[in-house]
Amino acid sequence: MLRLLSFALFLAIWWIAALVVGGAKLPSPPAVLQVMIAEASSGALFLHLGATLARVALAFTLAMSLGSAIGYLMGRVKLADRLGDPWLILLLNLPALVVIVLAYIWAGLTEAAAIAAIAINKLPTAIVTLREGTRALDRSLDEMASVFAMPRWRAFRHVVLPQLAPYIAASARSGLSLVWKIVLVAELLGRPNGVGFEIGVAFQLFDTPRLLAYSLTFAAVVLVIETLLVQPFEARANRWRPRAA
Amino acid sequence: MRLEVDITGKTFRSAAGGTHEVLAPVKFALRSGEVGVLIGPSGCGKSTMLRIILGLDHDFAGRIARPPEARIGMVFQEPRLLPWRSVEQNVRLAAPDVADAKLAELFRILELEAHRDHYPGELSLGLARRVALARAFAVEPDILVLDEPLASLDDALAGRLRDEIATLVASRPVMTLLVTHNLDDAVRLGDRLFFLSPRPAQIVAEVPIGIPRDTRGEAEIAAIKAGLAQRTQGDRTERDAS
């Protein structure tokens, strides 16, 4: 209920602002909705949205799984941490734009280059978060598992993984928002479809309604995925905790 | 089956760079069905000794001979339960082969039936301790290690749990190693008592208790305790005299 009210407030402010500034700079909600409907009925909206979502899914999965594995290794093995740390600092501070441009130059304007570039941007933050999570693992529970001779996989699943779950959730949450942002840049620079590509076209034509139609649909999809996927996972991972105040 | 402990020394390097001797030579053995009790002042290195015996610490001089297939059941000083798993899951994860009937009986003896589906965060310390006991017994251990399992519990509860431990130990042949600084617990549960010196720990006295555990009445227990008190008194006067 409160969420709906907040959404209504957003629409109201937008509408008033549109009236004040004028339709050329900020089209009113109905004008944007009209474009959305037109794009949706032609199928273009779904095509571009689908292309972007597929890239997000691939790059996100790639970065999360690789990043979690490397982060866990660096948290557990001192040598891996020492060797990996300089690379990690380099990757963390490398601007997204540099990675994307270099990927396109080296691998051509291909799908693989785009997905790799997006994944590389997300990778270091996943590593850092999971490394912290691994360092914070409770040694006394490891000892317990070892004394009771728990097989490795069972100990990992029931002793280690639940301790890492909040870190994985945090990393997924921040990583998803990072990937959402970067995927559009990658599409703008070197892909013939996707929301980023459409926004690029709209920018060249100064077509604000189209720009808003695409970005707002995209934002809505992000919101839905957050509420339906990320938040339930977090809630599930934390259900054993006594209720937070 | 026998557990032989022959530690010739253990040093510990502190962060400041100094080395500290934690354990002096310690040697003892336990047979199946026997309850050995380690009694010593806090900080004397009992926990270090346990970690070595359990195979958690390999950085020591000496030898531990454990039957290679021996199953270990352990009750740590803190319960060390998995907070994200229910009471029943905690027990079953350590003892996946435990039969339902056996588990039900353990939960009945330890009065945990009502708490099967609770998470450890919802339990009092006393209950969590009992879950840790249930877990240790559910694995049907060949070696049972109890590290101050009754510390910081009120007397009534500690007494009940002690009786339960005695019942469970008697129900199957197991080598039990109990660490405590409560003489009463030691005399009621132990077959052999090992008195440890302050750090670096070594065994200053080994006292076998001849009377079988189930025939030890209050009078016998009082007599044993009096004997022990006299003995330590004697040690002290001897030391003071020299």
From TrEMBL, chain A:
Top-level division of the source organism's lineage: Bacteria
Listed SUPFAM superfamilies: MetI-like (SSF161098)
Keyword ATP-binding attached: no
PROSITE patterns: ABC_TM1
Transmembrane portions of the chain: 47-75, 87-106, 211-233
CDD domains given in the database record: TM_PBP2 (cd06261)
Domain named ABC transmembrane type-1: residues: 49-229
Keyword annotations of the record: Cell membrane, Membrane, Transmembrane, Transmembrane helix, Transport
Localization per record: Cell membrane
Topological category with respect to the lipid bilayer: Multi-pass membrane protein
Pfam families: BPD_transp_1
Family as reported in the entry's similarity comment: Belongs to the binding-protein-dependent transport system permease family.
Protein name per its UniProtKB record: NitT/TauT family transport system permease protein
